[in-house]
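Appendix B, example 12.
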Amino acid sequence: MDELKVFTGNGNPALAREITDYLGIPLGKSEAFQFSNDNTFVRILENVRERDTFVVQPLSAPVNNNLMELLIMIDALKRASAERITAVVPYYGYGRTDKKDQPRVPITARLVADLLTVAGADRLLTVDLHAAQIQGFFNIPVDELTALYTIANYFNQKKIPGLVVVATDIGVSKRARDLAAKLNAPLAIMEKRRLGNNDRTETLNVIGEVSGKTALTIDDEIDTAGSLVGVINTLIERGVRAVYSCCTHPVLSGQAIQRIAACPVKELVVTNTIPVNGARKLDKITVLSLAPLLGEAIHRIHTGMSIGAMFEQD
């Protein structure tokens, strides 16, 4: 493990420290800041020549600053003769812009993939991409982990009776089906329609039996929480006794915290791919750490072991 170095930008240093604690190594020494002219500067403060290096940086708010930090840190490591550079991006920003669904729009998820590759990343380690095809945007190896097992273990320990897993839309139904199987619970799906580009949705229908049950909604990320509140209200109208919610990425932008605080959800379970602290932390929000998952993946990449084997026993 002496040849392994883990660095971090300012995106989620607490997660990076947890990962290095799991690995039993110190966090790599570096600095990343902005000059008064808003230019980003990064410096690696220790020798990385011929080392296996990992950079932990989610592309969360401020997204563009964190993206530039990551790109510049990768470039700095490359110019410092690092043997291999793995971008550890727990949350892949711009992941929702993964296709041309309107005329004259970009595919920014592909652009970010190109930027990471050109900067010098040799591989990507990420968690629960918004769309599986994003892996195909890269010409370098991509390891996509999932928080599904961590979330399923948490709710299995709660032993909630009469549980039904609810996909918040059809696009997340496969993930919801996998969670339902791990919880031995039935599956329901919300059918909804997105209205334009302003994050408003119209919930249309519930596919499946939910009356008299306790619902657990699942999504890959929660942004403004407008969709979540609409789903929760619809489920309660359909006779659900109580609602729990979970997601991997707590983006929680705009009025999300106020909406979650005011809505009748009993508990929102998220992971720490994105920091949840300060004004973004509520009593009803539970944060599960993915540091052991990411730390074990880094260890396996470094030692040439299988990533897929991490999940085979489940």
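The mean pLDDT is 94. DSSP finds nine helices and 14 strands in the chain.
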